[in-house]
Amino acid sequence: MSYLQSLTKHGRLGILNVKIGTNIILIKGACGNPMRNTKQRQVVLDIVRNTDTHPTADWVYEQARQIIPNISLGTVYRLLGRLQEEGLVVQLEAGSRKSRFDGRPGAHQHIICEQCGHIADVPDIIDDTATERIQQLTGYRVSTHRVEWFGICPRCQSGKTSA
Questions:
Q1: Nearest-CA neighbor of 111 among 94, 134, 89, 91?
Q2: Fewer CB near the last or first residue (10 Å), C or N of the chain?
Q3: Do residues 85 and 146 share a domain?
Q4: Shared-domain flag, residues 22 and 41
Q5: pLDDT tens per residue, range 124-141
Protein backbone atom coordinates (compact mmCIF):
# COMPACT_ATOMS: atom_id res chain seq x y z
CA MET A 1 0.00 0.00 0.00
CA SER A 2 1.40 3.40 -0.97
CA TYR A 3 1.64 6.31 1.45
CA LEU A 4 -1.10 8.16 -0.45
CA GLN A 5 -3.40 5.12 -0.33
CA SER A 6 -2.74 4.80 3.41
CA LEU A 7 -3.64 8.44 4.06
CA THR A 8 -6.77 8.08 1.95
CA LYS A 9 -7.82 4.85 3.67
CA HIS A 10 -7.47 6.40 7.11
CA GLY A 11 -9.38 9.54 6.14
CA ARG A 12 -6.47 11.92 6.56
CA LEU A 13 -6.85 13.39 3.08
CA GLY A 14 -10.65 13.41 3.01
CA ILE A 15 -10.89 12.25 -0.60
CA LEU A 16 -12.76 9.53 -2.44
CA ASN A 17 -11.58 7.25 -5.20
CA VAL A 18 -13.27 8.07 -8.48
CA LYS A 19 -14.96 5.28 -10.41
CA ILE A 20 -15.57 6.08 -14.05
CA GLY A 21 -19.17 5.55 -15.10
CA THR A 22 -20.73 5.75 -11.63
CA ASN A 23 -21.55 9.48 -11.38
CA ILE A 24 -19.48 9.61 -8.19
CA ILE A 25 -16.82 12.28 -8.32
CA LEU A 26 -14.08 13.51 -6.04
CA ILE A 27 -15.40 15.96 -3.45
CA LYS A 28 -13.87 17.09 -0.20
CA GLY A 29 -16.28 18.12 2.53
CA ALA A 30 -15.83 21.26 4.64
CA CYS A 31 -14.59 19.31 7.66
CA GLY A 32 -12.26 17.16 5.61
CA ASN A 33 -14.93 14.51 5.32
CA PRO A 34 -15.59 13.41 1.77
CA MET A 35 -19.05 13.87 0.32
CA ARG A 36 -20.04 11.69 -2.58
CA ASN A 37 -21.81 13.31 -5.46
CA THR A 38 -24.89 11.11 -5.27
CA LYS A 39 -27.90 11.51 -7.51
CA GLN A 40 -29.86 12.97 -4.58
CA ARG A 41 -27.15 15.54 -3.84
CA GLN A 42 -26.87 16.55 -7.50
CA VAL A 43 -30.65 16.90 -7.89
CA VAL A 44 -30.92 19.13 -4.79
CA LEU A 45 -27.99 21.27 -5.92
CA ASP A 46 -29.40 21.59 -9.45
CA ILE A 47 -32.82 22.61 -8.12
CA VAL A 48 -31.37 25.38 -5.96
CA ARG A 49 -28.99 26.58 -8.69
CA ASN A 50 -31.63 26.62 -11.41
CA THR A 51 -34.18 28.83 -9.68
CA ASP A 52 -34.03 32.50 -8.84
CA THR A 53 -36.80 32.27 -6.24
CA HIS A 54 -34.48 31.56 -3.27
CA PRO A 55 -36.51 28.49 -2.29
CA THR A 56 -37.27 27.02 1.11
CA ALA A 57 -36.19 23.48 1.93
CA ASP A 58 -39.83 22.40 1.66
CA TRP A 59 -40.04 23.76 -1.89
CA VAL A 60 -36.76 22.04 -2.83
CA TYR A 61 -38.16 18.81 -1.36
CA GLU A 62 -41.36 19.04 -3.45
CA GLN A 63 -39.32 19.63 -6.61
CA ALA A 64 -36.88 16.81 -5.78
CA ARG A 65 -39.77 14.36 -5.23
CA GLN A 66 -40.80 14.86 -8.85
CA ILE A 67 -37.40 13.45 -9.87
CA ILE A 68 -36.70 11.08 -6.95
CA PRO A 69 -40.08 10.05 -5.48
CA ASN A 70 -38.60 8.32 -2.42
CA ILE A 71 -36.34 11.17 -1.25
CA SER A 72 -37.13 12.28 2.31
CA LEU A 73 -37.46 15.80 3.67
CA GLY A 74 -34.73 14.96 6.20
CA THR A 75 -32.37 14.04 3.37
CA VAL A 76 -33.06 17.36 1.64
CA TYR A 77 -32.33 19.26 4.87
CA ARG A 78 -29.08 17.32 5.41
CA LEU A 79 -27.97 17.86 1.83
CA LEU A 80 -28.72 21.58 1.96
CA GLY A 81 -26.71 21.80 5.19
CA ARG A 82 -23.73 20.06 3.63
CA LEU A 83 -23.96 22.12 0.44
CA GLN A 84 -23.95 25.22 2.61
CA GLU A 85 -20.88 24.00 4.53
CA GLU A 86 -19.12 23.46 1.21
CA GLY A 87 -20.00 26.97 0.04
CA LEU A 88 -22.12 25.77 -2.88
CA VAL A 89 -25.34 27.31 -1.55
CA VAL A 90 -26.03 30.10 0.90
CA GLN A 91 -28.70 29.97 3.57
CA LEU A 92 -30.61 33.24 3.81
CA GLU A 93 -32.27 34.45 6.98
CA ALA A 94 -34.52 37.08 5.44
CA GLY A 95 -36.89 37.76 8.29
CA SER A 96 -39.26 34.90 7.51
CA ARG A 97 -39.77 31.87 9.71
CA LYS A 98 -38.28 29.54 7.10
CA SER A 99 -34.75 29.71 5.80
CA ARG A 100 -34.30 30.21 2.11
CA PHE A 101 -31.42 29.03 -0.03
CA ASP A 102 -29.44 30.74 -2.75
CA GLY A 103 -27.62 28.71 -5.38
CA ARG A 104 -25.46 31.68 -6.36
CA PRO A 105 -22.92 32.06 -3.54
CA GLY A 106 -20.90 34.69 -5.45
CA ALA A 107 -20.92 38.42 -4.79
CA HIS A 108 -24.41 39.83 -5.01
CA GLN A 109 -27.01 41.31 -2.70
CA HIS A 110 -30.71 40.75 -2.11
CA ILE A 111 -33.79 42.92 -1.97
CA ILE A 112 -36.65 41.54 0.11
CA CYS A 113 -40.31 42.51 -0.14
CA GLU A 114 -41.64 43.60 3.23
CA GLN A 115 -45.15 42.47 2.33
CA CYS A 116 -44.88 39.09 0.59
CA GLY A 117 -41.29 38.10 1.45
CA HIS A 118 -40.15 37.68 -2.17
CA ILE A 119 -36.36 37.82 -2.50
CA ALA A 120 -34.64 39.09 -5.64
CA ASP A 121 -30.97 39.25 -6.55
CA VAL A 122 -29.26 42.63 -6.84
CA PRO A 123 -25.78 43.09 -8.33
CA ASP A 124 -23.10 43.74 -5.72
CA ILE A 125 -22.61 47.51 -5.60
CA ILE A 126 -20.21 47.61 -2.66
CA ASP A 127 -16.84 48.36 -4.24
CA ASP A 128 -13.27 48.27 -2.89
CA THR A 129 -13.48 51.96 -1.94
CA ALA A 130 -16.41 51.27 0.41
CA THR A 131 -14.62 48.25 1.88
CA GLU A 132 -11.43 50.27 2.48
CA ARG A 133 -13.44 53.08 4.12
CA ILE A 134 -15.18 50.62 6.45
CA GLN A 135 -11.80 49.16 7.41
CA GLN A 136 -10.45 52.65 8.13
CA LEU A 137 -13.48 53.60 10.24
CA THR A 138 -13.65 50.39 12.28
CA GLY A 139 -10.14 48.97 12.34
CA TYR A 140 -11.55 45.66 11.11
CA ARG A 141 -9.98 43.72 8.25
CA VAL A 142 -13.03 42.97 6.09
CA SER A 143 -13.18 39.45 4.70
CA THR A 144 -16.68 39.56 3.20
CA HIS A 145 -19.94 41.44 3.47
CA ARG A 146 -23.67 40.87 3.19
CA VAL A 147 -26.13 43.62 2.37
CA GLU A 148 -29.88 43.20 2.23
CA TRP A 149 -32.27 45.82 0.91
CA PHE A 150 -35.94 45.95 1.92
CA GLY A 151 -38.93 47.46 0.13
CA ILE A 152 -42.20 46.66 -1.61
CA CYS A 153 -41.95 44.53 -4.76
CA PRO A 154 -43.66 45.57 -8.02
CA ARG A 155 -46.29 42.84 -7.63
CA CYS A 156 -47.35 44.08 -4.18
CA GLN A 157 -47.23 47.70 -5.36
CA SER A 158 -49.75 46.86 -8.07
CA GLY A 159 -52.06 45.20 -5.51
CA LYS A 160 -51.64 41.68 -6.88
CA THR A 161 -51.19 39.03 -4.23
CA SER A 162 -48.40 36.47 -4.50
CA ALA A 163 -49.32 32.87 -5.21
A1: 94
A2: C
A3: no
A4: yes
A5: 777 778 889 999 999 999
Closest CA to 41 of 87, 90, 92, 80: 80
Q: Are residues 73 and 25 in the same domain?
A: yes
- The residue segments making up the domain with residue 38 are 16-104
Check residue 139 and give left, alpha or beta (phi > 0: left; psi -120 to 50: alpha). Answer: left
Spatial CB neighbours of 106, under 8 Å, sequence gap ≥ 6: none
Q: What is the pLDDT of residues 20-54, one digit of tens each?
A: 333 333 434 444 455 667 899 999 999 999 988 88
Question: 85 with 97, same domain?
Answer: yes
Count of Cβ atoms closer than 10 Å to residue 101 Cβ: 23
Q: How far apart are CA 9 and CA 20, in angstroms?
A: 19
Cα separation, 17 vs 1, in Å, equals 15
